[in-house]
């Protein structure tokens, strides 16, 4: 068994160390470890997130905390590299499953540790939560190389997106799970539309599907404050524009096809 997956593994201890140098060295090793060709378990990643939680907890100064939060959330992309590194001699790695378990383990960990976060340290974790909401959508994208003068085109993996939305609905946005702190639910609702818009600038997502967990919160939450905040999220004026880019593109294509058909039908050949 790997050192990382044992409760007292040296890498886990280094991540939670009070020594800045040890924490930085451990983070450098961690990306390589996660991008290796191996299948992780939920227990593996829960242990890892506990160490990452204390890694951020022990980090002083806002600038360093923000940078570390970005590094921690970017570990999500390490799982994508496993596909590129895997050998035909080893059992194929389910990258999407590893990633989903990593995201799920984060929400379980932050919900468990929420009540123990003091006010002085709360801001650093609020930023990490924002980053992980963004990662929920961003890691479902695949890009295709386009002309160098243009931005890369992207599409969303519908199956992976559905899995990630289900994780949101079952963890921070679970309407009736008393283990989820109200403050955590409220913060996720506060940043959801911001990060959705940032991950999908071209409006390619089906917003109704993404917002299903929020609709459930609005109807089923046991807390009035959460129901009210969910309603405010759903009434955000930006939601009306999200997802319209794809519709506009489809309408334009349909109109162009209709015009082509009209042109073809109206041509009667050369006159005598």
TrEMBL record:
Pfam families: Nop52. Residues 248-272 have a biased composition (Acidic residues). GO terms for biological process: rRNA processing. Keywords: Nucleus, rRNA processing. Its main location: nucleus. GO terms for cellular component: nucleus; preribosome, small subunit precursor. The keyword NADP does not apply. Residues 237-272 are annotated as: Disordered. It is found in: Nucleus. Belongs to the RRP1 family. This is Ribosomal RNA-processing protein 1. It comes from Myriangium duriaei CBS 260.36.
């Amino acid at each position: 068994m790997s050192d990382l997956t044992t409760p007292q593994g040296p890498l886990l201890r280094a991540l939670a160390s009070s020594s800045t140098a040890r924490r930085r060295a451990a983070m450098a090793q961690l990306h390589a470890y996660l991008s290796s060709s191996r299948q992780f378990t939920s227990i593996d990643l829960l242990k890892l997130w506990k160490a990452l939680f204390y890694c951020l907890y022990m980090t002083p100064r806002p600038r360093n905390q923000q940078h570390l939060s970005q590094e921690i959330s970017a570990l999500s992309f390490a799982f994508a590299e496993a596909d590129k590194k895997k050998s035909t001699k080893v059992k194929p790695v389910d990258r999407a499953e590893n990633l989903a378990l990593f995201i799920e383990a984060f929400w379980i960990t932050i919900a468990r540790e929420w009540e123990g976060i003091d006010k002085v340290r709360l801001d650093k974790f609020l930023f990490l939560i924002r980053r992980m909401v963004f990662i929920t959508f961003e890691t479902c994208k695949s890009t295709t190389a386009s002309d160098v003068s243009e931005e890369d085109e992207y599409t969303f993996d519908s199956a992976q997106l559905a899995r990630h939305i289900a994780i949101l609905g079952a963890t921070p946005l679970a309407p009736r799970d008393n283990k989820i702190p109200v403050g955590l639910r409220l913060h996720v609702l506060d940043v959801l539309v911001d990060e959705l818009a940032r991950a999908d600038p071209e409006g390619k997502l089906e917003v109704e599907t993404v917002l299903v967990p929020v609709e459930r919160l609005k109807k089923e939450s046991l807390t009035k404050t959460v129901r009210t905040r969910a309603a405010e999220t759903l009434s955000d004026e930006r939601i009306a524009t999200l997802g319209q880019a794809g519709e506009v593109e489809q309408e334009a294509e349909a109109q162009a096809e209709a015009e082509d058909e009209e042109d073809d039908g109206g041509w009667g050949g050369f006159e005598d």
